[in-house]
Amino acid sequence: MAQIEATTGGTLALALPFIAAALAPIFKRLFKHHAAWILALAPALAFAILFSFLPSIANGGVIQFGYDWIPAFDIRFSFRIDGLASTFALLITGIGTLIVLYSGGYLQGHRDQERFFSFILMFMGSMLGLVLADDLMTLFVYWELTSITSFLLIGFDHDREKARRGAIQALAITGGGGLALLAGFILIRELAGFNSMSEILAAGDALRTSPYYTAIFFLVLAGAFTKSAQMPFHVWLPNAMEAPTPVSAYLHSATMVKAGVYLLLRMQPALGDTALWTTILPIFGAVTLVMGALLAVRATDIKITLAYTTVSSLGLLVMLIGVGTEGAIEGAVLYLIAHSLFKGGLFMVAGSVDHGAHTREIDRLGGLAKHMPITFVAALFCAFSMGGVTPFIGFLAKETLYHALEQGDAYHVALMASAILGNALMFAAAFIVALKPFVGKLPAAIHHPHEGALTIWLGPIVLGALSLLGALFYGTYHSLFSSPMASAAIGKPVAIDIGWMPHLNLAFALSMATIALGIAIYLGSNGLRRATNRVLDAIGWGPDRGFDQAMRGLLRVSFWITRRLQSGRLDYYMTVTVIAMVAALFVPMIVGKALPVAPEMPQLRFYEWLVLVLILVGIVAVVIAKNRLTAIVSLGIQGFAVALIFMLLGAPDLSFTQFMVETLSVVILALVMTRLKLSPADHRPWRETLPDAAIAAAGGAGFGLFLLSITQRPFDPLLSSFFERYSYAIAHGHNIVNVIIVDFRGVDTMGEIAVVMTTGLAVLALIRIRVAKRNRPLPDPTEATP
Q1: 515 and 656 fall within a common domain
Q2: 196: which strand partners?
Q3: Reduced to 3 states, what is the DSSP secondary structure of residue 133?
Q4: 198 is in which domain, residue-wise?
Q5: 528 & 575 share domain
Q6: Both 468 and 359 in a single domain?
Q7: pTM of structure
Q8: Is 577 exposed, middle or buried (0-12, 13-18, 19+ CB in 10 A)?
Q9: Out of 315, 493, 555, 699, which residue is the most buried by the measure of CB atoms under 10 Å away?
Q10: Is 67 helix (H, G, I), strand (E, B) or coil?
Q11: How many CA atoms lie within 13 A of 597 on its CB side?
């Protein structure tokens, strides 16, 4: 593959949504109702830049660009545009342009419309960075940005409890999966040695043959399954319908829910074609496909119906990726593009119906075709594509995936049955949304239904038309989009050539059977809905309720742990801290067999013996002190003895510093102690004081052994040589210690000074408070007490 540099254009395309997000409040105030058209120029320009790369990408080229981010850890802010990333990026920016325009009409007059524009554009930029990212850490940053920005969008109407719950649920589930994905990326980086997608894809079977493959597989799968709403993690997606309709249309068509599918397609050449991959993905995908479609037919709210069909479609995509054959990947690619177009269009139709008829309840709608003809045509076009009817691109996807599952063995027959049942249910759901609100008689409760403004019906009619034009001009469609995308996902060049003209074969027969079954389900949808409700009511418990139970359990456990660990007693905190410190000192030395060798007693001079005796006297004085002030002063003896050692060893500057620090510490500690109402001595029984004494002795012994083991290691003069060489050359100082304190670690020294200054100010405040209390006049006993 040819490597092409496109630093300026690629960087601009990535930055444009974020720039527009920052300017959105200003543009809304300046351009009022026309702000959407101005802001839509940002994703439109990004689309144009990315579209200009298509000829090179269609010829097998890969565009790469980036910048060093954290070179010490081999982390780059790097990006890669191949057929897979390019198609995703064009869907994100192209549909994103229509969504921005749609938001301008749908939310016109909303008090927080400028905030919404900022959120949706940030979300767009996050998703665009995710699909273009090459470096693993860069990908993870954008992955989490999509979770955060989707949280803001789902909870946009934060005055409503359901919106807040939906936002928290989405963040908790996708955020948890994101942490698992981060762990998987760390394993890939640190154990497998790959920092980017380019390295992973170039390594062939390296990850599949790695001893860490199983751990990497499940961690990556957790991230993908939570993001792309595979059961039982699907519950966040229908609850995300509490977001405004533009969010639903964008989130379900080309962005967040497709992130997990994108990751699986991207990693398929490196992680696919193993027993785990070809077993777990198809099973979970098939279950999600059928259950999501069944729940879609059960729903009565248009948005909820479409939400569950998205869950079902994501299951179909995961199932095909899990099968992993060339035909299955081609079917997944075709279906992904088709789904992005028809699902975005249908969600905009749902918003248009809500905007024009003021309800989304299917049972309360009817007869809207005469009043909203453009919306009706757009709905039919998108429904035909979703139902797999020719000549729409949904037909191309359905034919290809049926071809891919024609294996004959029981496993593939079961997957084929799941695909037929799921597609038939989705066919029914598509026309429940696209037909029932528009045909029949207009209900009396609906007054003056009307077509929306241009910005509201433009998006669905464009996406519906593209669903038709993509199939009619399938040669161009395949050469620019589907074939390069499938080639990148498979890992070798492939050419998709399926057209809209049907051929008499098994796949076409199964397609016709799917449509016939879908029509039957459509006609009997009311009975199926009642039966499904009875079953679900009998079951009672479900993942959505389980999420609430899990959250309540988490709060209870957190409260219990907090009450145990944060008791409010300082002695408890000190005991736990010292025990942890003792464990940290002793465990590594014992496990690593690094205990120091007992040293020989050195030949000490008489004044050195005096200092040692002084230290021992100070320790005894602290232990036997009758009041706390005496113990504090006696404790200062240890610091002064250390200062004497520095002086005797020829370091007067260190000695002076130690004298000052120790004096200040004793003074501050004594002043603080005088402010506390403490008993003059410790009157606890021996059974309480002995354990504390043992812990304290263990801490002292641990530090002593640790320092002794350090001194017994071979001396490494590298750091000393560095300071000797550069202290004068760089800092122009002959006193190396002073140069280290003032120059090499000047910020640290400034922090220490700030700490001492803050402590001094606190002590001064305490003293002033005490003086003020002493000078306060005594109350007059002759005055009556109020």
Answers
A1: no
A2: 135
A3: strand
A4: 134-248+255-538
A5: no
A6: yes
A7: 0.80
A8: exposed
A9: 315
A10: strand
A11: 4
